[in-house]
Amino acid sequence: MRGTSTTRRPLAVALTYVVLLTGAVLALAPYALSLLTSLKQPVQLARQATLTWPAPWTGENYAAILGGQFTLIPALVVTVQVVAVLLVGQLVCSVLAAYAFARVEFPGRQVLFGGYLTTMMVPQAVTVVPLYVMFAQAGLRNTFWGIVLPTLFGSPFAVYLLREYFRGIPTDLEDAARIDGCGTLRILRHVVVPLSRPVLATLAVITVVSQWNNFLWPLIITAGPTWQTLTVATANLQGQYNGNWTLVTAATTLAMAPLVVLFLLVQKHVTESIALTGFR
Q1: Which sign does the torsion angle of CA 73, 74, 79, 82 carry?
Q2: Are 238 and 248 in contact (CB under 8 A)?
Q3: Residue 47 CB: number of other CB atoms within 10 A?
Q4: CA 213 to CA 229: how far, in whole Å?
Q5: How many CA atoms lie within 13 A of 5 on its CB side?
Q6: pTM of the model
Q7: For residue range 121-139, what is the model confidence (pLDDT) as tens digits?
């Protein structure tokens, strides 16, 4: 029996790696194809098979979208500004709300939290028309604040994630801080937040990715190139130059690159957060 178990174990490990490798190839193949296509000339893409290597390699497409005729720099600047403001707003407001739901006792806390969580089940498309009417009447159409205000003050998912993490922090640490004379905000700042860096890093990544890729609301609330985000500008580029796929794939690759760099920088905190919160 031992020999059979010993023989099966390497086979199981090998099969696991084969499955994981296959999944990785299937997941990364579209991005690799987009990168290769962006480094080709339109003539080569039209005459040769899609999977052929660029010959010669060219950076003309990136030059065109970074400073040439089809520049996406203004849209990139707007997107960075929007994401930065939303990141700060969501982190601050979500931390405050989550700590209140986790630690502060007040009447109707559970009912209010349950009602707040039910909004996660409402599709974004349902709220688009009422939001647009409200913002148009308030004179916020085609403005920076018109883009950021709907999601500036946190989200149900962020509050839920942080609340569950805060509830796992020992109350003895907070009691010790209160004995030393700390108030609620000082405890939150000097005790809870430093202990919550992994989950805050995870929430930051989720916020940046979701807002960087947000398309529907910026498309509806903006008009013209002034406040176009990167997703809207890329979609317009695809509509205007549908035949020039080398240019379009260069734009999509550029839009994707910051997210890849961000995940590589904080992947340690993300995996640590999953390990701490996913199996509690």
Answers
A1: positive
A2: yes
A3: 9
A4: 9
A5: 2
A6: 0.81
A7: 888 888 888 999 999 999 8
